[in-house]
Amino acid sequence: MTLLGPGGVGKTRLAVRAAHRMRPAYPDGAWLVELSCLHNSGLTGPDTLALLVMEALRVADQTTRSATDALAAWLADKRLLLVLDSCEHLLEDSAAFVDTLRLAAHVHVLATSRRPLGLPGEQCLEVEPLPVDGPGTEARDDAVVLFADRAAAVHPGFVLDETTRPTAVSVCRYLDGIPLAVELAAARLSSLSLSELGDHLGTRTDHRLALLDSDRGTEDASRHQALRTTIGWSHELCASLERLLWARLSVFTGGFDAEAAQEVCAGGPLTAGQVPVLLGELAAQSIVQRVRSTGTPRFRMLDTVREYGADWLRELGEEDAVRLRHREYYRRLARDGCAEWNTGRQVQWCERVLVDHANLRAAVDWSLDRPDRGAGLEMAGTAGFLWRHCGHVRDAHHCLDRALAGDPAPGPDLLRALWTRGAGAIMQGDLDTAAECGRRFAELAGRQQDPVVRSVSVFLTGGQLSLRGRPAAAIGPMSVAARLPVRDDWLGSAQLQTIGALAYAHLMSGDHKAAREVAEEVRDECARRGEQWTRSTADVIVAMLDLAHGDIASGVRNAARAVAAHRLLHSAGSLAALALDTLASATTAAGEAHRAAGLLGIAQRLWDRAGGRAQLNSPDLIAARQACEHAIRHTIGAPAYERTYDAGRALSYEQGMTYATDPTLPTPG
């Protein structure tokens, strides 16, 4: 079903409300996917939309299939609702993507768009503006009620009575009951009286607002004109610096905070010190919306308002300059994140990368489309490195493949890009890509005087050997990294991951003593730094060794610590699933079979989202999982196992990780 209507009529709000009410009917959830973040990004095609949907669903696919094929395979047996918001930005691609979902019989799509998608079987529902009726009628007057509510928020003491109601009705009629237009008009009561507001709206013309007049062929002209007039009138009533800030803020995607706004939008007559005050003024006028956040306060713009600002930014001739400042801000952010990734600030950086993911992606894509290939390579390498660790593996590979295809110049940025792409390929089992990245990295590293650079190159070759069933052959080359001091920057993270891979190679070779020594070394170094990502892998290895030697209590503690780290980093990939598998094995050995069954269900949900490479295709890990399941079935019986397992698998990511990290919670099901 497609909800149709002009911008500002309330399609998104209606879709979200409908999805919330229908949520119980979909065991696998109802999910909002905002396509507006791709507007003006230059990214097109069904695969781009599939990637965005995978991010929303937290599908951490680690196969080499196209995003569309991987998502279609994952959705094949799911029962869920997808809300695709603002499809008009990529109408043909949206239609092509939805068409690929036909084989997923129980996946329903609720789209919002200014135009129909044009697919067979599409049901279109026109979203009408709010009704406006005068006093003395029995019909509804929702638009007037909305106006009064918003008016009271900006003008305390405002009430709808026999004096104010006629003017409020005329205002809402003039605005044709479009909710966004009503809200923008009501916000003006902070500086105008109600009668002045009515007079202004009654005399407005829209000759200055033709910028928004393109691509509106199927919309109701009068409704669009009402909204266009209201936005333009709000723009005219803004002070000159407020208008300038509005235009410059349009380069942000998915939200921003005051610091980012200062860095990107200040310049010329608009100083950095003025930005926070003006931002507050725009928020008070409903031009900018405050976003609920537990951390730093954030803001965002509705699509229609941002589009208006973007049009004015182009008219001012500032688009390239402001987008360059936007790129430079996120370039510095990604650079700093890589520099501090191997420190106690890792969790904070993960939070920042996730909240600013859309802006980082926009900055990377803009850079890769520019002639300055060096800046594009750096951004792809730094953002890609962070994305790989923060759950956006496909975004990392997409931008890195674009950057590496251009035969970039040798240097530190190329080294980081090659190592990140190769390390990600190893986790996918894409050994050919890993081998090619390893070859190019080793060639560059051989020219370096830096022993750390040379030492981490063996991760790309040694990791392949372990996955190819030759862990003993990987031990010698990877041992070099264990003898060098560990750095704070991304290379230090690569060092720790190389040493962690060495511990795993020892484990798979059967040398438990060496595996424990190396894994403990990694854990100690990570603990000293406050690092979580690599430590979680070392914790899993130590937990496996604990179980192999009968130390059940220690196995439970170490596996639980690994799961807790993944929760901190919002990790939903194969390493998090492996940690849950290991915790389930330890919990089974501890005699808590019901709890273990729920943990296996939670783990399976993550394995499913990791693209089908259950237990990393490792025979040893597959055997451990099967042994755990067999022991649980034997203890509590098949019906109880299936019931609890299914209940665990049905939990959301947050619910599942909360249960896994809190042993006092009751077993699901």
Give an overview of the whole structure:
This protein has 669 residues and is mostly helical. The chain is built from 32 helices and eight strands. It has helices spanning 11-22, 46-57, 67-75, 91-99, 142-154, 165-174, 179-187, 194-203, 221-237, 240-249, 258-265, 275-284, 303-316, 319-339, 346-355, 357-368, 373-389, 393-404, 412-428, 431-445, 451-456, 458-467, 471-478, 490-509, 512-529, 533-548, 552-568, 574-589, 593-609, 619-636, 638-649, 653-661, and strands at residues 2-4, 30-34, 80-85, 107-113, 124-126, 256-257, 289-291, 298-300. α17 (373-389) packs parallel to α19.
Number of helical elements: 32
Helix % is 55-70%
What's the overall geometry?
globular
Note the gap between the termini: 33 Å
Strand order of the largest sheet: 2-3-4-1-5
Q: What is the rounded Rg? A: 28 Å
Quote the beta fraction: under 5%
Can you count the beta strands?
A: 8
State the low-pLDDT regions, or none: 205-219
Sketch the major β-sheet: 5 strands, parallel
Write down the overall mean pLDDT: 88
Q: Decide which structural class fits the backbone.
A: mainly alpha
Summarize the structure.
By secondary structure, the chain is mainly alpha-helical. It has helices at residues 11-22, 46-57, 67-75, 91-99, 142-154, 165-174, 179-187, 194-203, 221-237, 240-249, 258-265, 275-284, 303-316, 319-339, 346-355, 357-368, 373-389, 393-404, 412-428, 431-445, 451-456, 458-467, 471-478, 490-509, 512-529, 533-548, 552-568, 574-589, 593-609, 619-636, 638-649, 653-661, and strands at residues 2-4, 30-34, 80-85, 107-113, 124-126, 256-257, 289-291, 298-300.
